[in-house]
Write a structure and sequence with these properties.
Strand content of chain A: 5-15%
CATH architecture of the largest domain in chain B: 3-Layer(aba) Sandwich
CATH topology of the largest domain in chain A: Rossmann fold
Number of helices of chain A: 19
Bound molecules: flavin mononucleotide, iron/sulfur cluster, FE2/S2 (inorganic) cluster
Radius of gyration of chain A: 22 Å
Distance between the termini of chain B: 24 Å
Shape of chain B: elongated
Largest sheet of chain A: 5 strands, mixed
Oligomer: heterodimer
Helix content of chain B: 25-40%
Distance between the termini of chain A: 40 Å
Structural class of chain B: alpha+beta
CATH class of the largest domain in chain B: Alpha Beta
CATH architecture of the largest domain in chain A: 3-Layer(aba) Sandwich
Largest interface: A-B, 57 and 48 residues
Structural class of chain A: alpha/beta
CATH superfamily of the largest domain in chain B: Glutaredoxin
Helix content of chain A: 40-55%
Chain lengths: 446, 186
């Protein structure tokens, strides 16, 4: 059993209340930081921990914090990204609904480190019930003197507010999120300037994922070096993985970085294998945006090494034979899954969610959806397969925000690893759409 | 709602709106637009008519266009009248892998509404949405603040519909009592 740094007490009765959370050591990091450490010392511990952003990009959190501009007399902000909308990802929702005080404790300690006196949690609007849980916990924190003026007599003031979105995947992108928090459409901003210099209300701002913020209390309590002892190389600490699709036991698992993918899928401690006694066919390991890999390449790298749950191991082989850890949204597909249908489904998602500012993304995602739709429904031609790869290439690198790439990568990877299945749809137009038809590597199984 | 009568927020909603505006710097009250639109939608029958959007603009002291461009961007705001319950059906990959297509077909059969329509009895509006961050409990339908999970059998879907049919509307008494928009009680 690996260590559980975030979720150790997640199933304790009443852990969502201040009293029980305190009984289990809650808010110690606030006392330690505000009473015994300077803000810079907190930043230093986070740097030493090697913590990397858990929202998807994996950027070192301590480094991001040290980039924050600190002009005299200008307020700065910490904004927590709780927009969680990347298909396959449902870890933040679980963490916030069961351990609301962990996020609030992390927000207080992190805001202190950054010198922010007002902070926001931007939560996706669909999670109304979680917003209520958080608001209740925030009220408890005010009542206990962990929020408000002169916290614990330290002279440090902090107000924390929860802000709901209203249904838009793009608002997970940090600058779109800031626009949305300002009461506007969620159109990503051109960068530079980066939020560290000009973010919310054009003030210096740090945006961090829920899980990143939730890791700060344990780093402050135990020290960055202790945290960094867990994991392998530059993948330190623990990571929440949300497993879904055709695994036997879907759910969230806190793993120590470095667990072999094979163990994660087949061990009863984690996913417990593939449902219905079926074979694994493919995995999308880090949310819908990362390249899909066939069973052979997700279990082992191209060089035959066991693949591990770390940033480095999952991306071994680049986009030719590797993928990414991303947000930790782990989607398994069994042998009956139609890769073409799944790729079309994801393309429809990105087309629906494109904000429409850049033509390559707006038009390109539309083309991808349309051509994949006709391939899936038996109206495709052989040259359509190269057409979607070509369209994907033209989106990549030509857009304001990374949603364009997120739409392109799954398509390129699906064709790279499962081209025979796309061809089979062209050569078997009627069978492909026959209800109940299942395909495996181009072969009809049933 | 009678179109000729100008809509007005209830006193409870007005109090909640003032509380929310207080979360943002004084000159930045427009930040409260998204949460206020949620309140408006809950107060005025589950959708935001142009008149209701104008009221929101007036409340925040911004131009109506600033509200329209936002309400049309975000999928949670309904711009047309809806049934008593809006069923937000997740259609994205992980839910599809666990049977959301079949669930949707069953819902259409039982309610008599196609996706995008309201059932003849006015009870259910079917709306397809993208991933609801609950993929491990697929397939999912969201109805206001409630997530209905693992709707992978006709029985599970029917139980959800039965529960929803039994819900009664009640006036919003106090926003403090419920936190955020909620005009239905179980
Ligand atoms: C299209 C798009 C969607 C994103 N969605 C999310 C999200 O739902 N949650 C999140 O934390 N980060 C999301 N991100 C990443 C954020 O832009 C940002 O990098 C992250 O919140 C930074 O926090 P971290 O460094 O703690 O990971 C998204 C990025 C893109 C391009
Ligand atoms: S890449 Fe797509 S989502 Fe991102 S800014 Fe451009 S159009 Fe909008
Ligand atoms: S795909 Fe349906 S909740 Fe994520």
């Amino acid at each position: 059993m690996g260590r559980k740094l975030l979720t150790e007490h997640i199933n304790v009765e009443g852990i969502d209340t201040m009293a029980v959370y305190r009984q289990h050591g809650g808010y110690r990091s606030v006392e330690k930081a505000l009473k015994t450490m300077t803000p810079d010392e907190v930043v230093e511990e986070v740097k030493k921990s090697g913590l990397r952003g858990r929202g998807g990009a994996g950027f070192p959190t301590g480094m991001k914090w040290s980039f924050l501009a600190k002009p005299e007399g200008v307020p700065r902000y910490l904004v927590c990204n709780a927009d969680e909308s990347e298909p396959g990802t449902f870890k933040d929702r679980q963490l916030m609904s069961k351990l609301p005080h962990l996020l609030i404790e992390g927000m207080i300690t992190s805001s202190y480190a950054l010198g922010a006196n007002t902070s926001y949690i931007y939560i996706r609007g669909e999670l109304l019930y979680v917003l209520r849980i958080l608001e209740k916990a925030v009220a408890e924190a005010y009542a206990a003197g962990f929020l408000g003026k002169n916290i614990l007599g330290s002279g440090y003031d902090l107000d924390l507010h929860i802000h709901p979105g209203a249904g838009a995947y793009i608002c997970g992108e940090e600058t779109a999120l800031l626009e949305s928090l300002e009461g506007k459409r969620g159109n990503p901003r051109n960068k530079p300037p980066f939020p560290a210099v000009s973010g919310l209300y054009a003030r210096p701002t740090v945006v961090n994922n829920v899980e990143s913020i939730a890791a700060v209390p344990v780093i402050v309590n135990e020290g960055g070096e202790e945290y960094a002892k867990i994991g392998i190389g530059k993948s330190t600490g623990t990571k929440l993985i949300s497993a879904c699709g055709h695994v036997k036991n879907p759910g969230i698992y806190e793993i120590e970085m470095g667990v072999p993918v094979e163990e994660f899928i087949y061990s009863d401690e984690y996913c417990g294998g593939i449902w219905k006694g079926r074979e694994l066919k493919a995995v999308v390991a880090g949310g819908s945006s990362v390249p899909i890999l066939p069973k052979s390449l997700i279990l082992k790298t191209a060089a035959g090494e066991p693949r591990l749950m770390t940033y480095e191991s999952l991306s071994d082989g680049g986009f030719v034979t590797g993928t990414m850890l991303g947000s930790g949204g782990f989607i398994a597909m069994d042998e009956t899954t139609c890769i073409v249908k799944n790729t079309w489904n994801f393309s429809r998602f990105y087309h629906h969610e494109s904000c429409g500012q850049c033509s390559p993304c707006r038009e390109g995602t539309g083309w991808l959806e349309k051509v994949l739709h006709r391939l899936e429904h038996g109206h495709g031609q052989m040259h359509d397969i190269d057409l979607i790869v070509n369209v994907a290439k033209q989106i990549e690198g030509n857009t304001i925000c990374p949603l364009g790439e997120a739409a392109a990568w799954p398509v390129t990877a699906a064709v790279r690893h499962f081209r025979d299945e796309f061809e089979w749809h062209v050569t078997h137009p009627h069978e492909a759409t026959r209800p109940g038809a299942v395909y495996h590597g181009g072969l009809v199984l049933a | 709602m009678n179109a000729s009568v100008k809509p007005e927020f209830s006193p409870a909603a007005q109090a909640e709106i003032q509380r929310l505006i207080g979360h943002y710097p004084a000159e930045r009250s427009k930040s409260a637009l998204l949460p206020i639109l949620h309140i408006a939608q809950a107060e005025f029958g589950g959708w935001v008519s142009p008149e209701v959007q104008d009221l929101v603009a007036e409340t925040l002291g911004i131009k109506p266009i600033e509200v329209y461009e936002v309400s049309s961007f975000y999928t949670m705001y309904n711009l047309k009248p809806v049934g008593k319950h809006v069923l937000e059906i997740c259609r994205t990959g992980p839910c599809m892998l666990r049977g959301s297509d079949e669930m949707t077909a069953h819902l259409e059969r039982i309610t008599g509404a196609k996706v995008g329509e309201t059932s003849p009895d006015g009870n259910f509006t079917l709306k397809e949405v993208e991933c609801l961050a609950a993929c491990g409990f697929a397939p999912i339908v969201q109805v206001r603040e409630k997530y209905y999970e693992q709707l992978d059998t006709p029985e599970a879907v029917d139980a959800m519909l039965d529960e929803l049919r039994g819900l009664v509307h009640r006036p919003i008494l106090s926003w403090e009592e419920t936190g955020l928009p909620n005009s239905l009680s179980l």
